[in-house]
Queue: 2 jobs
Job 1
Amino acid sequence: MKLVLAGAQHFHMYHLLDYVQETGKAVFAGVYDDDRNVLQEISDKYGVPKYDDLDEMLQTCQPDVVACFAKPSTRGKVIAKCLGAGVSVLADKPPVLNLEELHDLKKVVSGMSGPKFTVLLSERYNPPVRTLKRIVDDGEIGDIVNFTAFRPHKMKKSERPDWFFRRQDYGGILVDLAIHDVDIFHWITGRKILEVTAHAGNFTVPEYPEFEDNGQIIFRADGGVTGLIKVDWLAPSAHPTHGDCRYFITGTKGTIEVKTGGDIGTTGGTITVCTETKPPYSVTLDRVESDLYGDFFAAIKDNAEPAISMKDVFEAMQVVLAARDAADDNCIISLE
Amino acid sequence: MKLVLAGAQHFHMYHLLDYVQETGKAVFAGVYDDDRNVLQEISDKYGVPKYDDLDEMLQTCQPDVVACFAKPSTRGKVIAKCLGAGVSVLADKPPVLNLEELHDLKKVVSGMSGPKFTVLLSERYNPPVRTLKRIVDDGEIGDIVNFTAFRPHKMKKSERPDWFFRRQDYGGILVDLAIHDVDIFHWITGRKILEVTAHAGNFTVPEYPEFEDNGQIIFRADGGVTGLIKVDWLAPSAHPTHGDCRYFITGTKGTIEVKTGGDIGTTGGTITVCTETKPPYSVTLDRVESDLYGDFFAAIKDNAEPAISMKDVFEAMQVVLAARDAADDNCIISLE
């Protein structure tokens, strides 16, 4: 499996590149970015050829898979170009920043069966989230009534690139962070979100008035299931993880609280379940035998749909884009 | 202090009556209810005269204070009548069930300076909530950005009267339960809620289709502060308290999580704070020297405004009634 990097603007890429080096499951064969400093840094660090032209890299390297960690505002185009060229793509989230880009991407992949596409919705492989899904699937808490997610992250202001603070380049907090929780809701419940309302605001970064350090979404899904998602860049610096992320699931026969830890590669987490017959008890986390990257490489080899499918990605994107619009326009948006 | 009971339909009344007996801070002098069985039961249990006419009780007993635990749908009229007769009233929440009753009550008290009125918003005296307010007031977490409240309670279906399951008599879950959290938000932050959206639904009581076993509110307050409130009657029977109620406060400089326990008179609870400089630490709960009943009796004696003022009660009612309408009509309601 030959892998190249198209855009190297988010630290999430190190997790993948280190994985590739450690497991040998792919060969890192080239890097493209339009920022010469970034390009030089990655090229030096991993000893791979650098390209300042995407087409040239695709043609020269003939990769099996492109990993896209481009600036969010350029991701959509990069992904569409790679998929259009018949190469599979693993992209950081969010893969696009607006409905137009989403539409363009859908057009590119329409009817396509060769190249595979997935997005780094890493919570799907987080042991506490995996365990949560298993407990829900086991019927332990009955039917799901409400799904609440908290996703606070540390801002680490001084380490962030300029684009992080600009709406046009970054896309906004609801699109960047809430996509995880929307996807997990869809995955855990099998329900489709039908309607969203949201807010976003900025309390701590006055020098970038477009930036949002906090946001919240309320939604209604099919079957009358409801949910709340709270995201922010206000996790206190002293917190031991990247943020005290949680899920709270209310079922007809019990409740589950999940502490998931912070970000990609975070270990730890806890699950507490309470039911009609059992007072709160902790559940040992399931071992997760597979991983997102390995599963995706296997899907490419097997010409199979990735575990986090295009449909999953597009549905989650649709919801977070609607949430951002709802916050901007202060309205309820229907997705039916 | 002579106290009578006008309406004896909610078990919260036992907390007050026991308090009165134990402390001797008031003399329980009579009970009125339109249900003869209920009347007989309380009269026998506490050895007080029973009345099936409210006016007759007021005239005969000449009370200093009326405690109103009438069926929610009749509370508004009972409270208005007592206040109109110049007698102070301590009512269970919610004191009214619609805007018309709220308007009528406001009209009765307009310009009134003698009789006092308060509502059993008991969380104000709950040690963890009191401690939360002190920590916020101390500036430990900076300015408040987001306020999230969970209020799950046990349904105890077999112990509930019929009216509990009918919207017309009960008022709905958002009005009954969320009033606590709206009031605590106002109290903790000093912010006014300007806009609400909400949902409510019923998963577990199909025989009463009007009943709601769960609800959620999203709101925006002045200064751009936002919040989420989740309420339900789905706390698992096996949970050690009446429900795992929580507050999560996100500030510009830290976060606070509060576990408050279940209902009036619940003891226990915990507070965890995390700031920019201190990893998560537990705070010893403040001792609460005063209590809601004692403070209210003192306010009557001193002709002073009760700690939970009429204005506080009316503002919280306005928000929860708007939330119920927002849920019913699937819209955003402005309170500006």
Note: Chain B touches chain A through 50 residues (CB under 8 Å).
Job 2
Amino acid sequence: MSQFTSEQIAEIELLRSTRSSTIRPVSEGLEEVLYQPIPVLDHGFVRVIDYMGNDDAVVQAARVSYGRGTKRVSEDRGLINYLLRHWHTTPFEMAEIKLHVKLPIFVARQWIRHRMASVNEYSARYSVLDREFYIPAPEHLAAQSASNRQGRGEVLEGDEAAAVLDMLRQDAGRAYDDYAFMLNEGGEDESRKGLARELARMNLSLNFYTQWYWKADLHNFMSFLRLRADPHAQYEIRAYADVMIDLLKRWVPITHEAFMEHRFGAAQLSATAIQAVRRMIAGETLDQVSSGLTKREWGELCAVLGLPETATK
Amino acid sequence: MSQFTSEQIAEIELLRSTRSSTIRPVSEGLEEVLYQPIPVLDHGFVRVIDYMGNDDAVVQAARVSYGRGTKRVSEDRGLINYLLRHWHTTPFEMAEIKLHVKLPIFVARQWIRHRMASVNEYSARYSVLDREFYIPAPEHLAAQSASNRQGRGEVLEGDEAAAVLDMLRQDAGRAYDDYAFMLNEGGEDESRKGLARELARMNLSLNFYTQWYWKADLHNFMSFLRLRADPHAQYEIRAYADVMIDLLKRWVPITHEAFMEHRFGAAQLSATAIQAVRRMIAGETLDQVSSGLTKREWGELCAVLGLPETATK
Amino acid sequence: MSQFTSEQIAEIELLRSTRSSTIRPVSEGLEEVLYQPIPVLDHGFVRVIDYMGNDDAVVQAARVSYGRGTKRVSEDRGLINYLLRHWHTTPFEMAEIKLHVKLPIFVARQWIRHRMASVNEYSARYSVLDREFYIPAPEHLAAQSASNRQGRGEVLEGDEAAAVLDMLRQDAGRAYDDYAFMLNEGGEDESRKGLARELARMNLSLNFYTQWYWKADLHNFMSFLRLRADPHAQYEIRAYADVMIDLLKRWVPITHEAFMEHRFGAAQLSATAIQAVRRMIAGETLDQVSSGLTKREWGELCAVLGLPETATK
Amino acid sequence: MSQFTSEQIAEIELLRSTRSSTIRPVSEGLEEVLYQPIPVLDHGFVRVIDYMGNDDAVVQAARVSYGRGTKRVSEDRGLINYLLRHWHTTPFEMAEIKLHVKLPIFVARQWIRHRMASVNEYSARYSVLDREFYIPAPEHLAAQSASNRQGRGEVLEGDEAAAVLDMLRQDAGRAYDDYAFMLNEGGEDESRKGLARELARMNLSLNFYTQWYWKADLHNFMSFLRLRADPHAQYEIRAYADVMIDLLKRWVPITHEAFMEHRFGAAQLSATAIQAVRRMIAGETLDQVSSGLTKREWGELCAVLGLPETATK
């Protein structure tokens, strides 16, 4: 937690030491980590600020019950799996989680596309940003993928890696120095008025860190994770999603298990793909052409089924 | 609570007696009434099932703070008032409340129009509804308003009132009896298979009670109250909104105060109305024609200003 | 169209005969049926009132293009399929459709649960409803399913069918007569003031018809269809969804084709189901127990794969 | 239109020259400018790509009508004003507009906070951005406001202005050059693989231009304008909102007029402010203390009423 000021650490510790009594449902797993920053990337973090409900809340809402709504654990697990499998979304909207996240601006720009969430972002119109920017670790400094227009290829090495890292660091450093100069915040240079904060910020690059409070219900939290913890998501947002999957597990262990089974580890088969699978089970040997799928779809189906793309069986 | 079975009462008491320790923020006012049904109309109720956050949550999110975010109470109050006055909605999205509501279907049909909320309704496809329907109390049995196409006029009296009450009661009673007959649930009549629940329910009238779990954030909770606690709202939904305003006060007393000041008791003046007010303050005597407002707008402005509609000063 | 007054028919014909010139994209398929009511159930209908965009709009938005955005038809088809397969939802939000729908209230109550749409409903606070209620055709008068708590079983027959139909018809008829009596709209009975419309409506049962304007974007239109044209949806709402799938085909033929392939005819396999399929393709014979799936999941998988539930191969 | 390639201009002209026949409602005002870029800031623009409905659509939906729904123009105007005044939002959701916008990233970050809209943004993961960045015109290069933490003060002049403009230009230029170098797109330098696009983009600063397709309904379009055309909005987003208000006028002239009257030029008075106004109309002379308002609220009320802040009358 070296990135935090001692004042911030004290504030966090104060929050963690203030216990109250409640008759609301509690998630023991989340209480353990509440308020504590979990590091992500080089300067980022995720902190759980608050939550409402747990696995019981899903069950209770689905049953519109007067009491806790839970029956035996096995029945609750069965119900949660059934709801998720059959796309019953509203019971999962009945639990909420609120995070404090520090993240690079280019990650924030992807994240904000999830509209069914509430956000309060630190305002650079109002306040001055810190001198913190993201520089990829060497193992994440990747070349453009040759096959996938929006993906990464091999890791850059040697001189090229060094040159790129140097350039990113230099440019961000200069951008910040000039930002601070234009602001003239302390009024060090009495001959200058200082540029308005809302204008000066435009000089910062997209790897600078911002932070926000972000709140979503359990349904939308899982929608976020399904897309952003996916291997096709950009590594930098995936790093956040991975931490959030751990939080999901702490918060609602039964729902987490169902999520891994019916969302994260699941696959959708198109009408034509279903026919192909039926024929393969019946013993037929298929290839892309005979499957009736496009090349890309065939490749995706083979990946799901763990088959080589050339031919089956 | 005579409308509850002893089993339901036991479930509610069990929930209320189960205390946990939490390091989350707590709303003492809501803890006091958590899970307890507050009666509305003749068979309805509102129960708080869960909540997240309190006045501090609004302040903390607005400041994107590391700690509690609150400063002195006067500063927090000032900030909350400022946010509400200037339509900053996101900090108020950071607190949530979840209710269990029992309400007549025609009220549910108005309520559901508020889309920014989560709902799980008791399913009459899946279960059998109870024999409970709404009959207005005599003082709420009103005639059609002559002046307002969607409003109520005087209270019905004497024979007409008696006839109407009798008719409502008879028709609902028969609708339920026939619903139960068609269902043939217990299989009493072995010669009949029993109509599917999803079909039989169509015989019930709109005054039958349904129930749901309903969850909204503080911003949308207040939007609901602004419209539904308004004197122009139908009395039956207003009865629910009135109870919910009391809950707002228990939950977030500072926000409640700001809500009464800047939403509920506030008025919007159009560009032309502002000009009219300026002229009146400057000492001019206006009437509808000279104000430049339409008859209806003039009437609304006079109501806001506590003036007779004929002429000012 | 016997259910329409000659005045309504004239209005519709007037709309259809008024041609304008536009430089916007046009869907020829929808222009052909614009404004014309398509009958559903015994008194309902769906009418397309307006639309924005066509298949090109999806492609153009996905490419953020300066012009039409389309390339060769085969490339456009490939892109639309890719977008739908990989859950890219925003390009499908770029086209809109607006319907005028007449539907029983119990269907309206299911329909309104789709929150990402705009609705203006005919107000029974403001106006008097017509004497129109839904009575199932004999072939849709089904018994409660024994196996599925929210499904239908066999069709009712003989005396039971006759009794049920009679009861539904009688109760709805009486409900309406009493509604009209309580309203005393024309003031026929001078001794009565007439009950307020907003109260009298509560006497009507859930099979009475209401109507609304409903607007959704193409993405949410398809979400609606995926759930409501599904065999598990209640027949009465499915009747509307079936008509709307035809409209989808007229409007955006390429997207319709992709929808049938990647949504409507598709199936989701859980992580465990994928393993089971892999083993079956490898030649293994599985049953429910060895599959690792629950009984219900195993049944669902067998249905997708066209296999008997007992054992495979 | 010097910022467009001749290919883009040809595409736009092709779209404008393709006329179709439609029986949908048409907005003549918007047809005139459809597809044509309207310049904003130094490199940005707004182009209308498509629309659905016009003033009639609002009226028609509010009346749930079979035909056009319009009566006399004066009645339609009265209805639209009534709906807007009384916060009836759904009829305004029945018309849609779709724009193609080119805008600096820091403006895009404010814009995207309006969640009730659909967006497809040009992807810098997938494609390479152009060398275009925003540099404020000298008259918009403002100092930080001394009184308002999130506002602008006087315009910078002389050496300071020159230094700031130079710095912004230099830093953005270098950021782009280094972005291009790291990408090594053409493969000019054979010894380098080229950094992945999704990483290289992080070197660009927030004044670089991005572009997107953006679609909103008329209700949310007006909500955007109310906040972003407000004098307290940052100048750069206001420049876009001003152009969009002109488009509103072309599209739905009656709604535009009502918007200026009941939203843009309107003011909200708090409960206490209403009391203060009542007393002033009754002839009382008030100051901040006797008004019961805070200093800030009193200042805001005086601004609305066109009064000096010291004392009234």
Note: Residues 271-305 of chain D form one domain.
